[in-house]
Write a structure and sequence with these properties.
eight-stranded parallel β-sheet; binds zinc ion; alpha/beta; 10 helices; single chain; globular
């Protein structure tokens, strides 16, 4: 049986041991997303400075790929606007982030990564930073559209209104909406279907059951961060396999699991298992 976690980070704490744990619990496929520049000890002043981050991340994904099937998602975390902005100014920070997204697109074109990551801050920021963040996210839509890949979004907490606003931006950029993934999504998968954005449901509490009760248009993730200061945050690497097995145990069928862990993933990310 294929079990996929489509948003996990490994960088410092358990590293490949987290992937071993995922595998032992029944996990087979994982999408690994790079973290912030500071997590890699990089202090980017230009877009190309992200090369070091992407290279380090992709090397880690290659190692993980010896254990399970692992794919690289690369991009720029929206909180970089604050981190870089304080050092080089917010306008310049946005430019560096957009250049880094162009670079991420090149890695996708070369087949070294399958998707891009972007978004906008989940914490409150000034009007200026908010507008610049939207500009960066819009650019990410354009890059993903041009290289024909999925885009994972890290954004503010879900509301119907803000997900509709994001969908409007995506439409303006002419990217296919199902390729735009709201990472850390709540199980409101019917609303996501109406709006068109694809939900990667955070496998917290009963979210997996709530989502599966509504339908099958979703994927599951842990957002495992691999941070020694916060071990097991957001959710541990075994969570998605455990929750998928629970779905089967309580009466959901294998067809649902195949849709969530295989078909949806293949469609959204353009990969073939
Ligand atoms: Zn994450």
């Amino acid at each position: 049986m294929i079990i996929t976690d489509d948003h996990m980070h490994i960088y410092k704490h358990l590293r490949l041991k987290a992937i071993e744990e995922f595998k032992r619990a029944g996990g087979t496929h994982v999408f690994l997303v790079n973290l912030l520049s500071k997590n890699y000890g990089v202090n980017p002043k230009r877009g190309e400075d992200f090369k070091e981050i992407f290279e380090k991340h992709i090397k880690m994904v290659e190692e993980a790929n010896e254990i399970v099937t692992a794919y690289a998602v690369i991009g720029v975390h929206p909180a970089e606007i604050t981190i870089l902005g304080e050092r080089i100014g917010y306008r310049k920070a946005a430019e560096v982030m957009m250049d880094a997204l162009d670079l991420a697109g090149k890695y996708v074109e070369e087949g070294k990564a399958v998707a891009i990551k972007s978004g906008r801050p989940h914490y409150s920021v000034s009007r200026e930073v908010w507008d610049l963040s939207n500009e960066v996210m819009f650019h990410a839509f354009e890059v993903a559209r041009d290289v024909n890949c999925a885009l994972q979004l890290h954004t503010e907490s879900y509301s119907r209104k803000n997900i509709e606003e994001i969908a409007e931006m995506a439409k303006k950029a002419k990217i296919k909406l199902y390729r735009v993934v709201k990472h850390f999504a709540p199980p409101k998968i019917d609303e996501f279907e109406e709006v068109g954005i694809f939900p990667s449901v955070i496998a917290m509490g009963d979210n997996h059951i709530k989502a599966a009760t509504i339908g099958d248009r979703f994927t599951l993730e842990t957002d495992y961060i691999d941070d020694p200061a916060r071990p097991g945050a957001v959710l541990g690497p075994k969570t998605v396999p455990k929750k998928v097995k629970e779905l089967l145990r309580i009466g959901f069928d294998e067809k649902l699991v195949e849709k969530v862990c295989v078909k949806n993933v293949e469609k959204v990310y353009g990969v073939e298992f």
